[in-house]
Structures are given as C-alpha cells and as structure tokens.
Amino acid sequence: MTGPLSAILGFGLFGVFCLAFTEKILPIPPSHVLLLFLGMTAAPDSSTLAILLAVTTLASFAGCLVWYGVGRRIGFDRADRLIERAGRYVFLRPATYRKLGQAYRRNHVRVSLLAQFIPTVRNYLPIAAGALGLPVLPFAMATLLGATIWNASFLLTGYLLRGSGQDSFTVGLRIIVIVVALETVFMLALRYGPAWRRRIRLALG
User: Fold this and answer.
1) pLDDT tens figures, 97-108
2) Which contiguous run of DSSP H or E holds residue 153?
C-alpha cells in the first residue's frame, strides 16, 4: 500500500490533492488511513501540516461537489437506483443511504455536516443532496466545515504519532478500529433508533 502512495506523494502537493480527491470518489484507501499516513510521513513540521490540511480539505470538498453535481444531473430516482446497484461494492447499504436521504429533507445543513464524520457515507451522501436539489451554498459550507474537522483530526493524530516514540502502526490501527466501531454504533442507532424510541415512549406511558 505504501509503495503506490509514496510514488504519488513524489508529485508533492499535487499528488496529495489527487490522493485526497480520489479517495472522495472511491474510498480506497479509507480517508482515515490515508490522512493518518500523510500526517505521519508527509508533515515534518507544523507549517507543512497546515498546508496538507488546506490541500486535503480542498480536495475532499471538490470531490463532494462532484458527487453533488452528479446527483443534480441524474435526479433522485436514478441516484437511488445507482446506490442500490453499486452501494454494496463501497460498503454503503442502500437502506442507510435512504434513511440519511430522508433526514436530509428535515435538516440538510446538520446532516451535511454530520455526514462528513461517517466513513463511506461522507463520500456518497452528497449524491442525495444533489438529487434532492438542496441549496448548494448551505450544503457547501456545512460540507467544508465537516471536511476540515475530519481531516484535521487524523492529520494531527498522525503528526503527533510521528514523534511520540510509540509504534505508529499499532496506535494507528487502534484508532482505525475505534473509528469503525463508532461508525457501527451510528449505523445501528440510525437503523434501530426510531423503534427503540417508540418502545421507550410506550413503556413510559
């Protein structure tokens, strides 16, 4: 994995931009893995770290706008069919996509922001935003803020691991496991939360 990544990083900031943009289109490697790697290997000082944050955030934001444009172009029904056919290949369950799409209708700014903290969902939920014709400016601002926070957290963690004296691979793996666990909890809450809330209300009378 590090061989191809290192080769692309040989192109400097352009390579970093291409990596972050491509990850937004097809999340291989996942963003948290990529950002940890960049923080550990490509940021020798805080100034370079800040530049990496700006470049990767701009690339992530550009990728979101591409998917938003795709959603606007194909419309809701075709977007739904696209996720139905291709979602399983990128670990995005169609049911999860539809639930979040419904939440978009109620509060698109908050969902646009929160979506940036959920692996895989953060890549493809902009399709729903475009397909629903949500206003581009609030979507863009919320997405940019979320991408900045997400990218900064993993880049900074990788940067701190670089000089910590700890085994970077082991600590990085633990962080990835925690992220996946949190994602799983979110998905379970999204899927079963409404039923649990109804049961609690019934139990309380």
Assistant:
1) 666 667 666 777
2) helix 136-162
Cα→Cα distances 140→73, 126, 136, 144, 148, Å: 17, 10, 6, 6, 12
The amino acid at 107? N
Helix axes 31-41 and 2-9, enclosed angle (nearest 10): 60
How far is the C-alpha of 117 from the C-alpha of 191, rounded, in Å?
17
Distant-in-sequence contacts of 189-198, Cβ < 8 A, 24+ apart:
190/96, 190/99, 190/100, 191/95, 191/96, 191/99
- For residue 126, say if its preceding peptide bond is cis, omega within 30 degrees of 0: no
Q: Is-cis flag, bond preceding 4, omega within 30?
A: no
Q: Which residues have a Cβ under 8 Å from the Cβ of 205 and sit 6 or more positions away?
A: none
Report how far residue 146's alpha carbon sits from residue 86's, in angstroms, rounded to the nearest whole number.
25
Q: Which regions in the chain score pLDDT beneath 50? A: 1
Displacement of CA 132 from its chain's centroid (Å)? 20
Dig out the tokens for 203 from the structure.
């139990």
- pLDDT at residue 1, rounded to an integer: 47
Q: How many Å apart are CA 124 and CA 96, to the nearest integer?
A: 11
pTM score, whole prediction: 0.73
Strands (DSSP E) found in 87-185 = none
CA–CA dist 21, 55 (Å, integer) = 10
Please give the pLDDT value at position 62.
95
